[in-house]
Amino acid sequence: MFAFVPFRIRSSALSLAFAALLAGCAGPTSERVDPAEPIDGAAALMLSQSPSAVGEAPAGWRPWIIRSDKTRTRYQLARASVGGHERPVLHAVAESAASGMWVPVNLPAAQAPYVRWSWRTDAMIDRADSSRPETEDAPARLVLAFDGDWRKLPLRDQMLADTARMLLGREMPYATLIYTWDSAKPVGASLANAHTSRIRLKVVESGPERTGRWLDYERNYVQDYIELFGEEPGTLIGVGVMTDTDNTRSYAESWYGDIQLLTPSRTALGELPDGPVID
Hints:
Blueprint: H1 12-25, H2 41-44, E1 62-65, E2 74-82, E3 85-95, E4 98-108, E5 114-121, E6 141-146, H3 155-168, E7 175-182, E8 190-192, E9 199-206, E10 215-220, H4 221-229, E11 235-244, E12 251-262
Parallel strand pairs: 7-9
Antiparallel strand pairs: 1-4, 2-3, 3-12, 4-11, 5-10, 5-12, 6-7, 6-11, 8-9
């Protein structure tokens, strides 16, 4: 999957890398979160509490467009039985499609270093392989985007960030961590994007054995970030999901439940007595 670039970049290597950077990261910062104007994304991530009606997009969520000429994955609220209780969830249907949904946040990662979520998919994607750019589709992904200091990175990565800023008038994430359901890679495997080191994946589910049921996860994303990027994360600026099948030209259907950002004591931000700890 590649993102739309407004005009042709002459260097083919730079063009390819820049397109990959946009494909992995354009959505979660399509409107940069200004630290002076914090956005409470913690509440919007609780889909079971969404005020939106079934069949609509959940309140507080934004489309994540991979490329303007790509068919978009369809996302809408639905009702499903989760843990014996019927509640709103986000239903995703991808037919040779690639797009996501995301929520902007502005949260120092150390303040809430855990993420808890649930999802379900009923079938794997034939030929999908997250380690190969030509087949890097997945039925379910959780995406976390982070801010950081681009000046610390190699010149090539700085050039990509400058080019994105010039062409699109907005910032790209400093780093993107993706939790993915892979067709074959084992649980715990770490994968690097084929074109940019600023996107890293961690496999949390593998193969078809647990399809057709709701699965729950909790990760210390700060520890995972340190493992994958070799440094402490900065500010968490976006949380999203993506179901995509554009590279394999296939079909996938998945459901996403509540996503919670948790403090070191495992207290959900949205459940704190004084409200979310986002400043």
